[in-house]
Amino acid sequence: MRLADLTLLFDYHDWATERLLAAAARLENAPPQELLATLAHICEAQRAWRMLMTRGQFTDFLQPDDCADLMAVQKLWRREKDEFWRYLRSLGESDLQREFTYVGAGGRRRRLVWHCLWHVVNHGTQHRAECAALLTTLGCSPGELDFPIFLDEAADPAG
């Protein structure tokens, strides 16, 4: 996997997550806690992997205030998005093959950076699907979240 490929995937990841946040903002009533918690979990997982890749440990868990309402989740997202892009921009091609270790629930783990970056996007896709289904049930679909739709919109920003 090349850095340019991962960068494109994170552009997609951000685009799709922001579509969910925009749909949640269009709800007539406050978003349900289930939706807020899932959106915050996407941010927390991204932050956890960033910290594991840079520090070898994750101790900065979400607090109840981080997902108290949509504004709090939006703030959490913006902050983590900025930090993650700062991390991505610091990487070179050779960094993607770097192996790092951390201690997880199953003990000591060894991973390659690019595997974990890929996982962050894939994990986000799973939880975005859950959020999209909930938003659709609430009458506020985020619309298409498919990668080709993102590519079309990225190629034609006016569209």
For the secondary structure, the number of strands is: 2
What is the assigned CATH homologous superfamily? dinb family like domain
Q: Give the tally of structural domains.
A: 1
Shape, principal axes of CA atoms: globular
Please, what is the average pLDDT? 94
Please give the CATH architecture: Up-down Bundle
Reported by name, the CATH topology is: Four Helix Bundle (Hemerythrin (Met), subunit A)
Beta-strand percentage?
5-15%
Distance between the termini: 29 Å
* Radius of gyration, whole Å: 16 Å
| Share of helix, binned | 55-70%
Helical run tally? 5
Order of helices and strands: HHHEEHH
Level-1 CATH class name: Mainly Alpha
Strand order of the largest sheet: 1-2
Unreliable segments of 5+ consecutive residues: none
How would a crystallographer describe the biggest sheet? 2 strands, antiparallel
What structural category characterises the helix and strand content? Answer: mainly alpha
